[in-house]
């Protein structure tokens, strides 16, 4: 890529500027490589904001399911922490099979204080926040 | 009442932060420079055989199959050190306590330390960057009042990170789990043969790109991904297909490659090598690599258009797949000719 073709497209995600000034290797007029700085380019910004749209939508849907009593708060905070079942299983040290069970409200209600604490600390919230899902 | 002691401050003052295009080559560059070995980022990347391609549909990160344009984490550092006769120490840890203590000990011994980390816990990044991406590399070179002094090659300046956050970043779970991996040079030797190291790096990359067993890696991997992309609209709902190709763009970009998937960095390496090896042919090869990088950029632009379209129409995915298959042939041809020159 030539130096004068370097895009400078700001990365606006969630309505905020998330640009990061990066180093890029580009060719100058003489064809020699040099470095320049840039903030990002359209294609990648779009890919990233699409990924976030998907995440936001999943979080929203899961939140509704928790409010409707279909899923437990663990499901919501799992999405919010950008985790999937296997990552959450690894973080908590619980087997994936059990984590899957804990996503069900009935099984979640039976969780011991110790296990709730384990989930809460992985999600970086208090047990109170985990058990009293805000609406 | 127990008086809480203020933690001692310790900073390796003669360590210099430098912003780089890619994290691991940047970390390796700065660590070696600290020990008097002056290289450039393209040289580190080339000698370290950082150029790669891999597509692993069964390794999913948040439901999206993994694609990489560079070699696995830790490889560049190890390879550059062994090629230049630098003794290094590379450690992983079973527990965070042991890992953090070992870091403190190394810092107390005035060693800047390279660390593998998850971007998710690095609060100095803009929030949108903070995914569970576990193959990031940074340098710790001091500790002050419970915070580590961090030289992250991707950042313009020096940053700080609370000890708790760094611990979480180093001991993140998922794939690939960093397990607190830390690394630093221990001893350097005076006589290293740079031209030989450069040629060896090229040979290794030729080997990776040409001889990796099909279908997942090297030029085969690119064509493999191409064939997959062609089938996305049949096999996936349009939203998912769009996310899958979006991820290819993001991996191509992976902080600072301008969408060229490390191809521009490699072209810079070839250009520099032409001078150091006094080989004019490499100047031509460098130009060709720049064009390959530009084509990867074009692929990303086209992929972005397909994402915007969202209709999931077969023809457009077919075109994207064909672009990848053409790129696979170009890279195969490129490295076949490069390997003949070595």
Describe this structure in words.
Chain A: Residues 109-130 form the HTH cro/C1-type domain. Chain A: This is HTH cro/C1-type domain-containing protein. Chain A: InterPro entries: Cro/C1-type_HTH. Chain A: It comes from Flavihumibacter solisilvae. In chain A, 52% of the residues lie in helices and 12% in strands. Chain A is mainly alpha-helical and 135 residues long. In chain A, a hairpin with a 5-residue loop joins strand 3 and strand 4. Chain A has helices at residues 42-67, 73-80, 85-92, 96-102, 105-109, 113-123, 127-131, and strands spanning 12-13, 16-17, 22-27, 33-38. Chain A has two domains: 3-40, no CATH class; 55-131, Orthogonal Bundle (434 Repressor (Amino-terminal Domain)), CATH 1.10.260.40. The model of chain A has no long low-confidence stretch (mean pLDDT 94). Chain B is of the alpha+beta class. Chain B folds into two domains: 1-23 and 87-187, Cysteine proteinases (Cathepsin B, Chain A), CATH 3.90.70.10; 194-341, Four Helix Bundle (Hemerythrin (Met), subunit A). Helices cover 50% and strands 16% of the residues of chain B. Chain B has helices spanning 23-34, 41-47, 75-83, 96-108, 163-170, 194-211, 218-235, 238-253, 263-276, 281-309, 314-341, and strands spanning 10-11, 51-61, 64-70, 87-91, 113-117, 136-144, 147-151, 159-162, 182-187. In chain B, the strands form two sheets. In chain B, strands 1, 4, 5, 6, 7, 8 and 9 form a seven-stranded antiparallel sheet that branches. Chain B has a two-stranded antiparallel sheet with strand order 2-3. In chain B, a hairpin with a 2-residue loop joins strand 6 and strand 7 (147-151). In chain B, helix 1 runs parallel beside helix 3 (75-83) and helix 8 (238-253) runs antiparallel to helix 10. Chain B is globular and about 65 Å long. Residues 1-5 of chain B have low confidence and may be disordered. Classes of the chains: A mainly alpha (135), B alpha+beta (342). At the A-B interface, strand 2, strand 3, strand 4, helix 1 and helix 3 of A face helix 8, helix 9 and helix 10 of B.
